[in-house]
Amino acid sequence: MSSDSTKKTIIVALGICLVCSILVSSAAVALSKIQNENKELDKITNILSAGDLLVEGKPVREIYSKSVMSLLLDLNTGEVVPKENYTEELNVENFNIKDIAFDPQLSSAIDSKEDIAGIKRKPNYMVIYEVLKGDEIDKYILPIYGKGLWSTLYGFIALDKDLKTIKGLTFYEHGETPGLGGEVDNPKWKAQWKDKQAFDENGEVIINVIKGIVDRSSSSANHQIDGLSGSTITTRGVDNLVKFWLGNNGYGRFFEKQGRGTHEQV
Ligand SMILES: Cc1cc2nc3c(=O)[nH]c(=O)nc-3n(C[C@H](O)[C@H](O)[C@H](O)COP(=O)(O)O)c2cc1C
């Protein structure tokens, strides 16, 4: 067979393809453990960041294991699911919002008029985080998500133990434009959320991401956040998703069960 025959060319090409595919799949298998560990570390870092718990030089896992406790919450009843009721699919370790939210058994359709976060289905369960100071609960860190302009933004909002005062907000996944909607990641913008009031005295959600800049001298400034410049749609998306998750379709039942406002802020 001549060295430049069609048959030989095909055999060599197939051989190269086979070797490359073995190399790529071996690398994927070998790296998947590291990827999963990094994903987990990234999630923990974001939970701590929302709760303003990161300490420079202190390992993230150490801070998390000492001060954060995860709980599985039934969003329809507002009750914490006892550990003995965990299943292979529903537990704090393997909980994945995206899987649960698209599982017809574990999620429910949201009436389009009430779907201000643009997520169509609501998971019936959510993993939430209690931040402990000694034996006492100091803060709650709650997952939130909803539509921006180009993407669904996934993040966390931290509330003080009074369940009224916001302690932080961070997004760990989104596809908004860097420099525009992507400014949700800007530390200066995120810092504004700290100590803002989420609810009025009747428990109505009053936190508002406005279009433009907050008038710091106004009496409403304690529940307003600057809009993102040139990014009205992302701004409106963040405003809506925060309102959705703090409202009756989100963590409302949980807030009722906890007796919002019974822990006064010190
Ligand atoms: C390439 C490109 C990327 C954009 N990315 C965003 C974005 O991430 N978020 C957003 O709200 N608007 C984005 N916009 C702008 C929107 O199309 C829209 O004009 C804007 O939300 C209006 O905001 P304004 O009223 O503050 O100007 C983008 C526009 C372009 C051309």
Structure, described:
The chain is α+β, with helices and mostly antiparallel strands. The protein is built from 6 helices and 10 strands. It has helices at residues 6-50, 60-67, 97-101, 187-191, 232-246, 252-258, and strands at residues 68-74, 79-80, 107-109, 121-123, 125-133, 136-147, 152-160, 166-173, 208-209, 224-225. The strands form 3 sheets. A 6-stranded antiparallel beta sheet has the order 2-1-5-6-7-8. The protein has a two-stranded antiparallel sheet with strand order 3-4. Strands 9-10 form a two-stranded parallel sheet. A hairpin with a 4-residue loop joins strand 1 (68-74) and strand 2 (79-80). Helix 1 crosses helix 2. The longest helix is centred in the first third of the chain and has 45 residues, at 6-50. The radius of gyration is 23 Å and the shape is globular. The structure holds flavin mononucleotide. Flavin mononucleotide binds at residues 149-150, 176-177, 180-181, 230-234.
Question: What's the short version?
Answer:
By secondary structure, the chain is α+β, with helices and mostly antiparallel strands. 32% of the residues lie in helices and 21% in strands. Helix 1 crosses helix 2.
List the helices and strands and how they pair.
Layout: H1 6-50, H2 60-67, E1 68-74, E2 79-80, H3 97-101, E3 107-109, E4 121-123, E5 125-133, E6 136-147, E7 152-160, E8 166-173, H4 187-191, E9 208-209, E10 224-225, H5 232-246, H6 252-258
Parallel strand pairs: 9-10
Antiparallel strand pairs: 1-2, 1-5, 3-4, 5-6, 6-7, 7-8
The site of flavin mononucleotide has 11 residues, from helix 5.
